[in-house]
Write a structure and sequence with these properties.
Number of helices: 13
Shape: globular
Structural class: mainly alpha
Strand order of the largest sheet: 1-2
Length: 459
């Protein structure tokens, strides 16, 4: 199904074009976000802060970093696996249109950040740069990704040897549904938020949909857990009907958010309901899947290879998820405990995507390509996961001593030894995580380059 004969040459992977396209967006966004994160880590170090006298420089970098690392990377990664799961069943015109709009969106995000006089707005979940070109890019990205998500919801799964496990596809479709709900919530909030609330305008616009996006991220993380564990153990963790029930419990309550957004974002229930839904729908579902995974692993423990990178990826993601839950429960104010919590949470999704990316590259590579060294994959995942955990703990330590959020360079005032130590630990963890990220990107770029290989002539 994946070969087309042209002038006596077999071109491999024609049905993987959508998956490859979205994967390129995912890896490209991570390259740019990683470079920006390095600047952000340096700007946070207390003994180098005096070098940077323009806090807006870091805030612009922070806006683009967050949008690439949380919105584009997570959505594109989800879309890549949906493309792999659906393959030749996808409509070529819809796929091409979605990819074109998404590509225009990424260009707009980057170009908008370079516009003279553009002001960064550090709204939660989707920070922005107040310039028309940046917003055009954001709209194009959400339009392109949303079109493909909606298309994926109604496209039957492929039935060839490359088909994903049914339970994994169920969770991927749940993530697609949550992403569509988030886009509709953004639209409703944009229409109903009055200009008069200038100081909190973007906070209100992106608050509800941003919370739904986190549910979408959790759904894809759970899908990747099931994917990695199935590849590692050789058997499914949960039946499709069980994971379907869990995904309904996770995603279905979010359907109220578009209605609340269209009803008005200045209503108290819009703000509070988003928080309550994220608090009470994510934790129970994740815990159930974790328990099921632990039972599954324990039952098959005798024959498992514990050095497998798939296990490392799952274990790292699960550990960061648990750490994120703990730090989130300790938040009592607007300090660096908040970024400590969410960097663990998003790190959990990222390391699951990274681990699954190794198998993804093998699935879409030309026949005969040698998989990446398991030893390298293990080392990369350990570096990134360990660095991200240290990074989050450093932020948490500084937050215990009152260090404020979203302060860079000369803006931040280190008043105590605890704040100094916390930020120093944060910097160390950030540098380790960046090293792990660079390692990952080097491997991925090498594998992507191999996709251009053409098979020998067909006899």
């Amino acid at each position: 199904h994946s070969c087309a004969e042209t002038d006596g040459v077999a071109v491999v992977g024609g049905d993987n074009i959508p998956a490859r396209g979205w994967f390129l967006f995912a890896v490209g966004s991570l390259v740019l976000a990683g470079l920006l994160s390095l600047m952000l880590v340096v700007g946070r170090l207390p003994f180098l802060g005096w070098l940077f006298t323009d806090p807006l420089f870091f805030k612009r970098a922070l806006v683009v970093h967050v949008d690439l690392a949380i919105v584009v990377w997570f959505q594109a990664g989800t879309l890549a696996f949906l493309g792999l799961a659906l393959g030749p069943r996808l409509h070529r015109g819809v796929t091409a249109g979605a990819l074109a709009m998404a590509g225009t969106g990424v260009v707009g995000l980057l170009a908008g950040a370079l516009m003279p006089g553009a002001q960064p707005v550090l709204s939660n979940y989707v920070p922005v740069i107040d310039h028309p070109i940046f917003f055009l890019g954001l709209i194009c990205w959400f339009a392109g990704s949303g079109l493909f998500f909606a298309h994926a919801l109604f496209t039957p799964a492929r039935v060839d040897a490359k088909a994903l496990e049914p339970a994994v596809l169920v969770a991927l479709r749940a993530s697609a549904a949550a992403n569509v709900l988030a886009a509709v919530t953004f639209l409703g909030a944009w229409q109903t938020t009055p200009d008069a609330v200038a100081l909190v305008y973007y906070e209100l616009v992106f608050w509800g949909g941003g919370h739904v996006l986190q549910v979408a991220n959790v759904a894809v993380m759970l899908a990747l857990w099931l994917y990695l564990l199935h590849r590692w153990t050789g058997s499914a963790v949960l039946a499709p009907v069980t994971i379907a029930a869990l995904m309904v419990a996770l995603v279905l309550p979010q359907i109220v958010m578009p209605f609340l957004a269209f009803g008005g974002t200045t209503e108290t229930v819009y703000f509070s309901m988003a928080t309550h839904l994220m608090r009470w729908t994510i934790f129970p579902v994740v815990v159930v899947v974790l328990i099921a995974a632990a039972v599954h692993i324990w039952r098959l423990r005798a024959g498992l290879g514990w050095r497998d990178y798939r296990f490392i990826g799952f274990a790292g993601s699960a550990a960061l998820t648990a750490l994120g839950f703990i730090l989130g429960a300790m938040i009592r104010g607007s300090n660096t405990l908040v970024p400590g919590h969410y960097h663990c949470a998003i790190g959990a999704v990222t390391i699951a995507l990274m681990a699954a990316a190794y198998d993804f590259c093998t699935s879409v590579a030309p026949a005969g390509r040698t998989p990446e060294s398991p030893k390298r994959a293990r080392l990369q995942l350990i570096l990134f996961g360990g660095g991200q955990a240290i990074f989050g703990l450093g932020f948490a330590l500084a937050g215990f001593y009152g260090m404020g959020r979203k302060q860079y360079g000369t803006e931040q005032h280190v008043r105590s030894l605890g704040e100094y130590l916390g930020l120093s630990v944060m910097g160390l963890g950030g540098l380790i995580a960046v090293a792990g990220g660079i390692f990952f990107l080097a491997v991925m770029l090498r594998r992507i380059g191999a996709w251009r290989r053409i098979s020998p002539p067909v006899t």
